[in-house]
Amino acid sequence: MLKVGDKLPQFEGINQDGETVQSEKLIGKKLVIFFYPQANTPTCTVEACNLSDNYSKLEKAGFQLLGISGDSVKKQKNFHNKFAFPYDLIADENRDIIEKFGVWQEKKTFGKTYMGIVRTTFIFDEKGVCTRVIEKVTSKTAAEQILEG
């Protein structure tokens, strides 16, 4: 998993509108990248909506936001439109970005072990250096966790 002090990995992803988002174009402003397991599921929706509801506070603190999951562009678009998120959602079906950040890991639910995305938030400074990793994201207070840093 990416850690504090690491540089923002180079990546190219497709957002909910089918547009290319390049990591190098995100440098210059503080950046929050949050990885979530699946669009439109209860816990992921709570997290994404909390970030949306607190977007003005995050923006005022100088952050730009980007959400990433392994969903398709179509699923991301539906999720984005349903809740009118003010930030992009990246579709990473091949898990290229997910694996670069190290959030594709073994998980356990109800005694079953499987591979999946570990809900994690990464915060980068204006130079693209990771300043914080939030591994125990609380969906209901995701924005507060970012702002308290």
UniProtKB/TrEMBL annotation:
Q: Name one GO cellular component term.
A: cytoplasm
Keywords annotated in UniProt: Antioxidant, Disulfide bond, Oxidoreductase, Peroxidase, Redox-active center
Domain (Thioredoxin): residue spans on this chain: 2-149
What InterPro entries has UniProt attached to this entry? AhpC/TSA, Peroxiredoxin_AhpC-typ, Peroxiredoxin_BCP/PrxQ, Thioredoxin-like_sf, Thioredoxin_domain
Q: Which CDD domains match?
A: PRX_BCP
The answer to whether the entry has keyword Disulfide bond is yes
Q: Which reaction does it catalyse?
A: a hydroperoxide + [thioredoxin]-dithiol = an alcohol + [thioredoxin]-disulfide + H2O
Q: Name one GO biological process term.
A: cell redox homeostasis
Q: Name one GO molecular function term.
A: thioredoxin peroxidase activity
Q: What class of enzyme is it?
A: oxidoreductase
Please state the Enzyme Commission number of this protein.
Answer: 1.11.1.24
The active site is formed by 44
- Output the superkingdom of the source species: Bacteria
Q: Could you give the subunit structure recorded for this chain?
A: Monomer.
Query: What family is this?
Result: Belongs to the peroxiredoxin family. BCP/PrxQ subfamily.
Instruction: Please name the PANTHER family in this protein's record.
Output: AHPC_TSA FAMILY PROTEIN, THIOREDOXIN-DEPENDENT PEROXIDE REDUCTASE
Q: What does this protein do?
A: Thiol-specific peroxidase that catalyzes the reduction of hydrogen peroxide and organic hydroperoxides to water and alcohols, respectively. Plays a role in cell protection against oxidative stress by detoxifying peroxides and as sensor of hydrogen peroxide-mediated signaling events.
Q: What is this protein called?
A: thioredoxin-dependent peroxiredoxin
